[in-house]
Amino acid sequence: DPHGKFSISPQFGIIRTKKPLDHEAQSVVVLTVQSQLGNSPVYSSTQVNISVIDINDNPPVFPTKSDKVTISHTQPPGTAVYIAHAEDKDSGLNGAIKYSIASKQSDAFSIDPSLGVVNLTRTVFAEKQQEYTLHIAAEDCGTPPLTSLLMLTAINLTDHRLASLAVKIVIVDVNDNSPSFVSSPLSYVMENVEVGFLVHHIIAKDPDEGRNGQVTYHILSGNENKAFVLDKITGLLTTAQFLDREVQECYSLTVIALDDGNPALSATQVLTITVLDVNDETPVFLKQLYETAVHENQDPGEFVVRVEAVDRDAGLNSLLLYEILPGAGYEKFKMNSDSGELVTAASLDRETQEVFSIKGSSCHDLGSPSRSSTAQLHLTVLDENDHSPLFAKTQYHISVTEDLEEGSAILDLSASDEDAGLNGEVMYSLIDDTYGAFAIDSVTGSIITTKALDRETKSQYTFRAVASDCSTHFPRSTTVMTVLIQDVNDNAPKFEQSYYKASVWEGQSPKTDIIQVFATDLDSGLNGETEYSILSGNENATFLIDSARGILTTNTGLDYENTSSYRFLVLLASDRGTPSLNSTATVLITVLDVNDNPPVFSSPEYHVHVKESIPIGSHITEVSAKDCDAGANAEITYAIISGNERGHFRLDGTTGSVNLVKTLDYEDTMKFTLVIQAT
After folding, report:
1. What is the CATH number of domain 182-274?
2. CATH topology of domain 284-382
3. Could you read off the pLDDT of 390-411 as tens digits, one per residue?
């Protein structure tokens, strides 16, 4: 800023104008701004591009206020008789000129509004009018438009005037001057201008006259992509397509100015066109999705990831600021707005939130208006082994039946560990003696039987199960298992003896107790409740048994003489399980004899005939009696209770044999009547 047109606030960096600016004198100002920080200054600098926007403050200007041209009736319609040329120091539409005939005395003339070429519209005759006055207006396209006037006098030469001119000395111009550029070799244009925008007015002067001084303009090189169009007559350079500073920032056009002499002379100029940046590029992140991981339990300030975006614009339009957009969990992070580095703002806990999906990380440039873009952040919190496994319950009470097969699962224990991966893998074990009955799957926690269970041997097991992870720092989790073995009717009642002997006196009244039998059942509940019954050998319902107590009693009076024993009385002991189990025992019941039957002689009378001459000692007869009783009750003793008063006979008390002990005398006693008693 050599002319001191600008000032800057040292504290806030606000740039202000100090003097009026003139677009025509300088359309672009490039300021270098320096900042310093601290007592031992640290310096930083940046470049500020200031475009001075044109206003329509300059009217078109003709080189002269009036001019003359000669015409002849020999010139046909359409002949160009004059080229009006005005210059406007403004740019863009403010410097674009339109030509018109403001007032005219005849309709013999017309003008090209863009090129300023005045043409005949018909043949002119001097006899009718020798001089024409045209007022040519040059008007720019600004708002409001500014106008200048040129008075052009057209003199119609007659043959007489030509003749009179023949005596004059005319100095004929020779093309001895090349065109010379008077326009600036530098031009600036914003990249967002429309197609057809006036970029630069190329002007070259040629002091020669006539065609020798008429200049046309052409682009020799630098316009290979056809970005610009140059009007060869007016020298107006306009855009032919949209410009993009990010594709091409600078154009170097080699322009030639060529006069119409013979031979033609020319001059060249390298026109440098700088395309000025417009904030038309949106920042673009190098990745649309940033995926990273960070460990839990770290102190705030832990580095997470660095995001990066690029902006193809220049200057402030390309300076980026980064931020995190509000979303779930975003408050746990903070981002360096300049570098894009993301760090934690708090200690993270994976068990509370394992994944943070933040949409998004945003960046915006410092252009006006600002442009921005977003990227997705996917953050995974890595686990640390900071939790021990926990069982759902501290105690488990379960019941299983004793008939489970070996290898049966009785319970699936589950302990949860909030950690992940290996840190959360739970291993199970048993730490108490299970008497070889149970084991636990170390991976699944399933408790299985390792042998057949027998409630009658052991009806309850109590042991502890442990859940642990791979950590050696955290305590293990323990739960107490109480397993109750439920009874299955797998034991039949068993009599104390398989064979019983008992006796009962005959003649006892019914319901007399004979014997009490006992059967034991190792099962419990209904499975161990025993009922007694008589299975067989009691066809006449002679006996009864108490179903609960097992007491066998008579149901009728017994008669030894009828049945002295019952050998095949089979008792049944049954439990109340389902299905019922049973066992049997045999009872031998002996009926004891009571002396309830007298001896009975085989004949009520015995008649014996003997000779009186039989010798002493002879066997006379033998009496016999029977007793239905048994034992001593059936042992019979015989005795003569009458008729043997003189002692002729002797009776054997045991055998009942009667013998003669004294001689018989028929004449004395013809007949003996002996009364014999059997006892």
Report:
1. 2.60.40.60
2. Immunoglobulin-like (2.60.40)
3. 998 999 999 999 999 999 999 9
